[in-house]
Design goal:
Layout: E1 3-4, E2 7-9, E3 12-14, E4 21-25, E5 32-37, H1 41-57, H2 65-81, H3 83-94, H4 98-121, E6 125-130, E7 133-141, E8 144-148, H5 154-167, E9 171-175, H6 182-191, E10 201-203, H7 208-217, E11 223-227, H8 230-239, E12 246-250, E13 256-259, H9 265-277, E14 289-293, H10 297-309, H11 329-344, E15 348-351, E16 370-373, H12 380-383, E17 390-396, H13 399-407, E18 411-412, E19 414-418, H14 422-431, E20 436-439, E21 454-455, E22 458-459, H15 464-470, E23 472-480
Helix pairs in contact: 1-7, 2-4, 3-4, 3-6, 4-5, 9-10
This protein binds 7-thionicotinamide-adenine-dinucleotide phosphate.
Length: 493
C-alpha cells in the first residue's frame, strides 16, 4: 500500500488543498512507494507564519543553550534507535546502497550530538572597550530559517541544516526535494517524540517553483539555506533580494583529482574510484575530473578501468551491490544525454556509457560506470556538472600545468592531490581554488570541518563552528558601568 504523506505545520500533519500529488518511487524498480502533497503558496506561507510566531514567542529561541542541547541529544537518540528504518527508507527512496545509507544515518545522528556539544561550549566575548565601557559580543538566533535540500543525501543534507539551525534557536521550515521526502517525514515523526516545542519545526512537501520560491521570497524568512544546483542557487539569490535575507548556498562542482607520477598508484586508483562512483557520482564533491601526470597515464588508466569494470551495480537493498541506482528517470536521461554529448565532442569512451537493462535491473535507473579519455578543456563533459557515474581523465606535464588545469573551471567545491612528496602535495593543494580538499585520500571529512565552496560552488559554510555561525546574528552590547552625560549638544556653549 502506498503511503499518503502530509505536511507538518504547527505540530499537526495536514493534507494539502492542492489535489495534485507527487508519486514517490523506488528508483531501483519504479515501484510507487508514496504519494506526496504539493504544498500551495498559501500553505507554505502558513508554515512561515507559524515559524515566525514560535520564534517570537521565545519558546525555543529563549531556551538556554543547555535546554536546547538536551533536545538535540533526544533527537540524536531517536535517530539512533530508528537507524535501521531510516537506512531502509533512504535506500528505498534514493536508490543508494545500504552501506552508503548507513553512513548517512550515522553521520546525521552524530551531527545532532556535535551541535548539542558545541552549543554548550559557545561562550560570549566581553571586554573593556574604554574606561567604564564594558562591551559584550553576543550570538543570537537569526529568526526563521528556510531550509531547501536536494535528493542526493535526503536525510544528511536535511540534518546538516536542521541541527545547527535549531541549535542556534531558530524556528525552521524544511523543504525536501519533491522526489525524496521519505526520511524527512520520518525525521519529523521522531521530532514529535522529543521535547522540541510544537511549531518550531515545519515540514513543507512541495515543488521548488512554489514552496521553494515562496521560502526564498518571503520577507518573514531571515535566512534561506540551500543545497543543490548552481542554476537554482542563482534563482534563490535573486528571490532573496527583496528583504536582503541571508543566503547560504552549497552548489555544484567539477572537482579535480590530481595524481602525480610519484603517487602510490594503487591508492590513487582506489580513491579515484571512490571519488567518482560513490553515490553513483550524484555527490556534489565527486572527483569528476581525474588529472594524471603524463608518464603514468597508461598504467593508471589501465588499472582504473580494470577496477571500474568490476564494480557491482545493483539495487541498494542488495548487500552485494557496490553502486546503486540513479535517483530518477529524468536525471538518468540527463546523464545519458551528457554521455552522448561526450561522444559527439570526440572524447574516447573507454568504459561503460550505457544504461543497464539486464539481470533484473531492467525496471530501474542504472548506468554503467563510465570513463572518457582524450578530452579537451573546452568540452562540455569537462566543464559541466554531470552528477552521475561519469569521469573524464585529463593529463598534465608538470606541477604548474596541474594547478592550471585543476583551476580551469567555474566551480570551486572540492579537489585532491595524490603524491608521496608531502611538501609538493601541500604546495599544490593550497593552490587549488576549492573549499573542501584532500591529500592522498578522497571524501574523508568530519562534522567539525567547514563545508562549502569557492566561485560558483556557493556562499557560506556548513558544519563545524562555521555552520552554527551561519544561523546566528552577532550583536555588540556596550554597557556604561558608570554612566555620565555625553554633553554633545550642550546649548550653553
Ligand atoms: P535542484 O533543482 O537544484 O533542486 C534542489 C532543491 O531545490 C530541491 O528541493 C528543489 O525542489 C529546490 N528548488 C528547485 N527550484 C527552486 C526554486 N526556484 N526556488 C527554490 N527551490 C527550488 O536540483 P535538481 O533538479 O534536483 O538537480 C539538477 C542538477 O543539480 C543535478 O544534475 C546536479 O548537477 C545538481 N545538484 C547538485 C546538488 C549538490 S549537493 N550540489 C544536489 C542536487 C542536484 P524540487 O526538486 O522538489 O522541485
Amino acid at each position: 500500500m502506498t503511503k499518503h504523506l502530509k505536511l507538518y505545520i504547527d505540530g499537526e500533519w495536514l493534507d494539502s488543498v492542492n489535489p495534485d500529488r507527487q508519486e514517490v518511487i523506488n528508483p531501483a524498480n519504479q515501484e510507487v512507494i508514496a504519494q506526496a502533497p504539493q504544498a500551495t503558496k498559501e500553505e507554505t506561507e502558513k508554515a512561515i507564519r507559524i515559524a515566525r510566531s514560535t520564534f517570537e514567542s521565545g519558546i525555543w529561541s529563549e531556551q538556554t543553550p543547555g535546554e536546547r542541547a538536551e533536545v538535540l541529544y533526544q533527537i540524536a537518540n531517536k535517530i539512533e534507535a530508528h537507524a535501521e528504518e531510516l537506512t531502509e527508507l533512504e535506500v528505498l527512496n534514493n536508490g543508494k546502497t545500504i552501506r552508503e545509507a548507513e553512513a548517512d544515518v550515522a553521520d546525521a545522528l552524530h551531527t545532532f550530538r556535535y551541535y548539542a556539544g558545541l552549543l554548550q561550549n559557545q561562550t560570549d566575548e566581553t571586554f573593556e572597550a574604554e574606561k567604564d565601557l564594558q562591551t559584550m559580543i553576543v550570538k543570537e538566533p537569526m529568526g526563521v530559517a528556510g531550509l531547501i535540500v536536494p535528493w542526493n543525501f535526503p536525510i544528511l543534507m536535511s540534518v546538516w541544516k536542521i541541527a545547527p539551525a535549531l541549535a542556534a534557536g531558530n524556528s525552521i521550515i524544511l523543504k525536501p526535494a519533491e522526489i525524496t521526502p521519505m526520511t524527512a517525514v520520518k525525521l519529523y515523526e521522531l521530532f514529535e517524540q522529543t521535547d522540541l516545542p510544537k511549531g518550531v519545526a515545519q515540514l513543507v512537501l512541495g515543488t521548488g517553483a512554489v514552496a521553494g520560491q515562496t521560502l526564498s521570497e518571503s520577507k518573514d524568512v531571515d535566512i534561506v539555506s540551500f543545497t543543490g544546483s548552481t542554476k537554482v542557487g542563482q534563482q534563490i539569490m535573486q528571490a532573496a533580494a527583496g528583504n536582503l535575507k541571508k543566503v547560504s548556498l552549497e552548489l555544484g562542482g567539477k572537482s579535480p583529482n590530481i595524481v602525480f607520477n610519484d603517487a602510490d598508484i594503487d591508492l590513487a586508483v582506489d580513491y579515484g574510484l571512490f571519488g567518482i562512483f560513490m553515490g553513483a557520482g550524484q555527490v556534489c564533491t565527486s572527483g569528476s575530473r581525474l588529472l594524471i601526470q603524463e608518464d603514468i597515464y597508461e598504467t593508471f588508466v589501465e588499472k582504473f578501468i580494470e577496477k571500474a569494470k568490476a564494480i557491482r551495480v545493483g539495487p541498494g537493498n542488495d548487500k552485494a551491490s557496490e553502486m546503486g541506482a540513479i535517483v530518477s528517470n529524468k536525471h538518468m536521461d540527463s546523464i545519458m544525454e551528457y554521455i552522448q554529448i561526450g561522444k559527439e565532442e570526440g572524447a574516447h569512451l573507454v568504459l561503460g556509457g550505457k544504461r543497464i537493462e539486464k539481470d533484473g535491473l531492467e525496471k530501474g535507473f542504472f548506468i554503467e560506470p563510465t570513463v572518457f579519455t582524450n578530452v579537451t578543456s573546452d568540452m562540455r563533459i569537462v566543464r559541466e556538472e554531470i552528477f552521475g557515474p561519469v569521469i573524464v581523465i585529463q593529463t598534465f606535464k608538470d606541477e604548474e600545468e596541474a594547478i592550471h588545469v585543476a583551476n580551469d573551471t567555474d566551480y570551486g567545491l572540492a579537489g585532491a592531490v595524490f603524491s608521496t612528496d608531502q611538501a609538493k602535495a601541500v604546495r599544490v593543494i593550497k593552490k587549488v581554488r576549492a573549499g573542501i580538499t584532500w591529500v592522498n585520500n578522497y571524501h574523508l571529512s568530519s562534522v567539525q570541518s567547514p563545508w562549502g565552496g569557492y566561485k560558483t560552488s556557493g556562499i557560506g559554510r556548513s558544519l563545524g563552528k562555521y555552520g552554527l555561525d551561519e544561523y546566528q546574528e552577532t550583536k555588540q552590547i556596550n554597557i556604561s558601568m558608570n554612566p555620565e552625560r555625553s554633553d554633545w549638544f550642550d546649548g550653553e556653549k
